[in-house]
C-alpha cells in the first residue's frame, strides 16, 4: 500500500536510532536550548502531527515552541523548622501534565490567541519541548473556517485553557473527583 507524504514524515521522525537523524536532532536541540523558552516558529517541526491536530498554513494560525525543564516537580524548601519528612519537598507530583503546562504558558504569553492543540516535539538531557498551535479568532480567514468554529464561534474569546474547557483537563478533574474526594471526606 502506498504511503502519503505525511506517513513518510512520521516514519522518519520515529526512527530515532539512525545516525543521520541523531546528528541532525543534536544540532537542532543545541539551537533550541540557546533560544528563549517560548518562541513563535514559522512552521511546525512535526508537520504531519500538527496537521492531524488542526494546523493549517493560513493567517491567524500560529505555532509556538515551548521549552520546559525536565525532572520532578520541585518545591521550595520551607524556612521554618520541622522534621525533614514533613518538609513537603520530595515525592510531590503535579496534577497537570507537562503538555498542559506548556499550553498554559503559551496562552499566557499570547493573550489574544486561543489554544487549539499541542504535541511533544523532543527531549534532551535538561529540557522537553512542545509545540502549541494557537488560533487568532479575530482573523476573518479563521472565522470563516468551519474547523475553528467551535473555538471562534463567540464574539468574546472564551480563554478555554484557563477555564479548563479542554478535554484532557475535564478528564483529569473527573478522575480527581473520583479518587481524592472520597478520601478527603473521610472515606477509604
UniProtKB/TrEMBL annotation:
Assigned keywords, A-Z: Ribonucleoprotein, Ribosomal protein
Gene3D superfamilies linked to this entry: Ribosomal protein l15e
One Pfam annotation reads: Ribosomal_L15e
Question: Would you say which domain of life the source belongs to?
Answer: Archaea
Q: Which InterPro entries match?
A: Rbsml_eL15_core_dom_sf, Ribosomal_eL15, Ribosomal_eL15_CS, Ribosomal_uL23/eL15/eS24_sf
GO CC term, one of those recorded: cytosolic large ribosomal subunit
Q: Which GO terms describe its biological process?
A: cytoplasmic translation
Q: Molecular function terms in GO for this entry?
A: RNA binding; structural constituent of ribosome
Family the entry assigns? Belongs to the eukaryotic ribosomal protein eL15 family.
UniProt cross-references to NCBIfam families, sorted A to Z: PRK04243.1
What name does this protein carry? 50S ribosomal protein L15e
Organism, by scientific name, is Pyrobaculum neutrophilum (strain DSM 2338 / JCM 9278 / NBRC 100436 / V24Sta)
Amino acid at each position: 500500500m502506498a504511503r502519503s507524504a505525511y506517513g513518510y514524515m512520521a516514519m522518519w521522525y520515529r526512527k530515532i536510532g539512525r545516525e543521520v537523524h541523531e546528528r541532525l536532532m543534536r544540532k537542532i536541540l543545541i539551537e533550541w536550548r540557546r533560544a528563549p523558552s517560548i518562541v513563535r516558529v514559522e512552521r511546525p517541526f512535526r508537520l504531519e502531527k500538527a496537521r492531524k491536530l488542526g494546523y493549517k498554513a493560513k493567517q491567524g494560525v500560529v505555532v509556538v515552541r515551548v521549552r520546559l525543564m525536565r525532572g520532578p516537580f520541585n518545591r521550595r524548601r520551607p524556612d521554618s523548622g520541622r522534621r525533614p519528612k514533613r518538609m513537603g519537598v520530595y515525592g510531590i507530583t503535579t496534577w497537570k501534565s507537562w503538555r498542559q503546562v506548556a499550553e498554559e504558558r503559551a496562552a499566557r504569553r499570547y493573550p489574544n490567541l486561543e489554544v487549539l492543540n499541542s504535541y511533544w516535539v523532543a527531549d534532551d538531557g535538561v529540557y522537553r519541548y512542545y509545540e502549541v498551535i494557537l488560533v487568532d479568532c479575530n482573523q476573518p480567514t479563521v472565522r470563516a473556517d468551519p474547523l475553528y468554529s467551535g473555538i471562534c464561534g463567540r464574539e468574546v474569546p472564551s480563554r478555554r485553557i484557563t477555564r479548563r474547557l479542554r478535554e484532557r483537563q475535564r478528564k483529569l478533574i473527573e478522575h480527581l473527583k473520583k479518587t481524592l474526594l472520597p478520601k478527603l471526606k473521610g472515606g477509604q
